[in-house]
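Blinded run. Sample ID left blank on purpose so nobody reads anything into the name before looking at the predicted structure. Input follows.
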Amino acid sequence: MVEKNVYLVPTFTVFRNYGANVDGCVDNVRRFHELGGRVALGNDYGGGPGEFELGIPMYEVEMLSRAGLTPEEVVDAATRNGARVLRLDDEIGTLEAGKAADIVVVGGDALADLQALRNVRLVIHAGAVIRQDA
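Blinded prediction complete.
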């Protein structure tokens, strides 16, 4: 996968919900990442038993962090790399002219502390505000 630039989307939530060894998954992602592997964030919403998070899948965020990805790499996994996996990176995934204006604003600095992603303050989708907290 590393040699062919294939992205890994670990889906820790599915492993957790089926009672599988999540620590083994974290170790596998750590080794893959250390070898230069590319990672995207996903959780297969609705793909099995148990709970799946709506919005930002913080369990996935936390497990990628445990696997050794920096906060910036985790945010990239959720945005830029997620768009690349979907082959939509010319439309979404980064803030650039000509792309869809989808923006999530959080209270705090997610690059200093990923837990800031839990504090969503503003969501803009296709240029329209769909959530705004005081």
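Unblinding after everyone has recorded impressions. The first strand starts at residue 103 and ends at 106.
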